[in-house]
């Protein structure tokens, strides 16, 4: 039997004149992610798209799971395509969806007829197919308000499409439709989630990771790359800049008051990140900060950190509880990697009593005790580039 994948567009259907631009970015992303599975054709309809495999051994399940990670799609489903003949439609609904129908007790049929030449109206299709299924499956009853499964029959130009409940798509906007930003990525739980959330809004993601060898290990860097690989399944390719940060941290420790260490370090991270981000055409930074989570994430500390950035800083987790962040980390698959215990450059020189309400004037005074400018330049110049491609 012929099968197709049915994709429902998400938020882009609300776009006006720009809609074709958003759609063509989405189509490009879909084609790129499915390319390695073999030949398939993509057809656009009004607010939906169809993908039809061109060979028998096409891995439809794998295609579905990839499609579920593509931002811009509200729902995805696999559907049988048959001739526009009522008897064939009824029989196919029963055979194609028999496993689903045997496992539930309530259903309803939903029909759409975009080919108005088809002899039956939508209500007639619902009644006919519904009656047939009630005859075939003694476990079923019709529930039009709250059915466990909705059997959809769509009569389109080139055939009738039959499918069960659609699976949720990733939502959001197609990556590439909303500019470019650089995520400051650590090996923790939060920053990969922050990257995912901005990618979901269509932002192309670059990454910047600070490391402090020998205090941080090669394993810690690999962990960050593993996290980015998982993020890239949603965001597409990510270019990561790995910045050597040891010298700067050592000089801060030597020259600045201990209780200001963390905020000064974070300010220098921002400065270096802005330089790299701008060179790469990024319009903003992204961090995984959340108000009050740690000493460096009080409003005062965040304000002082922000002051060092010449780009807007997006903090999509700012008002979220750790539990909520973990929930997303589990959903996208980064959690298990994030909790592996490797050191981060932020934690190697943690002061015993960090100042939770730092004042900018004291930070600026402390920073002027040493000429950090050449070190910042050196860190930018020595950043190493790692290209992260999605696993598939
Ligand atoms: P995460 O779980 O993302 O590590 P966190 O709760 O541990 O966050 P911090 O260590 O204070 O918080 O870091 C706050 C933010 O600073 C991180 O979310 C991340 O965006 C950025 N950051 C921290 N460490 C690094 C690093 N080594 N390289 C790049 N960015 C970092
Ligand atoms: Mg961290």
Structure commentary:
With 392 residues, the chain is α/β, with parallel strands linked by helices. It folds into 2 domains: 2-168, VC0802-like (2-Layer Sandwich); 180-388, HUPs (Rossmann fold, 3-Layer(aba) Sandwich). The chain is 41% helix and 22% strand. Strands 1, 2, 3, 4, 5, 6, 7, 8 and 9 form a 9-stranded mixed β-sheet that branches. Strand 11, helix 7 and strand 12 (238-244) form a beta-alpha-beta unit. 40% of the residues are buried. Adenosine-5'-triphosphate is lined by residues 184-186, 188-191, 208-210, 287-289, 293-294, 296, 344-346.
Please summarize what this structure is.
The chain is α/β, with parallel strands linked by helices and 392 residues long.
Oligomer: single chain
Helix percent reads: 40-55%
Largest sheet: 9 strands, mixed
Number of structural domains: 2
Beta-strand proportion: 15-25%
CATH fold category name of the largest domain:
Rossmann fold
Number of helices: 15
Low-confidence stretches: none
H and E string: EHEEHEHHEHEEEEEHEHEHHEHEHHHHHE
Instruction: Identify the overall geometry.
Output: elongated
Give the strand tally.
Answer: 15
Look at the structure and give the mean pLDDT. Answer: 94
The computed structural class is: alpha/beta
Bound small-molecule species: adenosine-5'-triphosphate, magnesium ion
CATH level 1 name of the largest domain: Alpha Beta
Radius of gyration: 26 Å
CATH superfamily of the largest domain: HUPs
Distance between the termini: 27 Å
What is the CATH architecture descriptor of the largest domain? 3-Layer(aba) Sandwich
């Amino acid at each position: 039997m012929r099968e197709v994948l049915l994709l429902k567009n998400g938020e882009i259907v609300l776009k006006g004149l720009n809609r074709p631009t958003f759609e063509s970015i989405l189509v490009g992303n879909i084609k790129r992610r499915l390319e390695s599975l073999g030949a398939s054709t993509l057809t656009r309809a009004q607010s939906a798209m169809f993908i039809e495999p061109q060979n028998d051994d096409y891995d439809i399940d794998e295609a579905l799971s990839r499609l579920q990670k593509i931002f811009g799609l509200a729902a995805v489903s696999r559907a049988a395509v048959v001739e526009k003949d009522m008897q064939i439609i009824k029989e196919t609904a029963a055979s194609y969806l028999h496993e689903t129908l045997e496992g539930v007790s309530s259903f309803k049929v939903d029909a759409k007829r975009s080919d108005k030449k088809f002899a039956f109206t939508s209500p007639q299709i619902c009644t006919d197919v519904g009656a047939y299924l009630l005859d075939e499956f003694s476990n079923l009853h019709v529930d039009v308000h709250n059915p466990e499964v909705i059997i959809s029959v769509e009569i389109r130009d080139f055939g009738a499409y039959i499918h069960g409940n659609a699976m949720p798509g990733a939502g959001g906007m197609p990556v590439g439709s909303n500019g470019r930003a650089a995520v400051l990525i650590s090996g923790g739980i939060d920053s990969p989630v922050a990257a995912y959330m901005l990618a979901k809004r269509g932002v192309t993601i670059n990454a910047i990771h600070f490391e402090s060898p020998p205090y941080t290990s090669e394993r810690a860097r690999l962990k960050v790359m593993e996290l980015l690989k998982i993020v890239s399944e949603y965001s597409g390719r990510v270019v990561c800049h790995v910045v050597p940060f040891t010298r700067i941290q050592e000089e801060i420790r030597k020259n600045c008051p201990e209780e200001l260490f963390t905020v000064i370090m974070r300010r220098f991270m921002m400065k270096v990140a802005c330089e790299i981000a701008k060179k790469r055409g990024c319009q903003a930074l992204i961090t995984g900060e959340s108000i009050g989570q740690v000493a460096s994430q009080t409003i005062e500390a965040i304000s002082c950190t922000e002051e060092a950035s010449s780009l807007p800083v997006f903090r999509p987790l700012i008002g979220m509880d750790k539990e909520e962040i973990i929930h997303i980390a589990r959903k996208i698959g980064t959690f298990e990697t994030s909790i592996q215990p490797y050191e981060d450059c932020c934690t190697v020189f943690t002061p015993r009593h960090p100042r939770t309400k730092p004042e900018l004037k004291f930070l600026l005074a402390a920073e002027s005790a040493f000429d950090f400018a050449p070190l910042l330049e050196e860190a930018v110049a020595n950043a190493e580039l790692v290209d992260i491609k999605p696993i598939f």
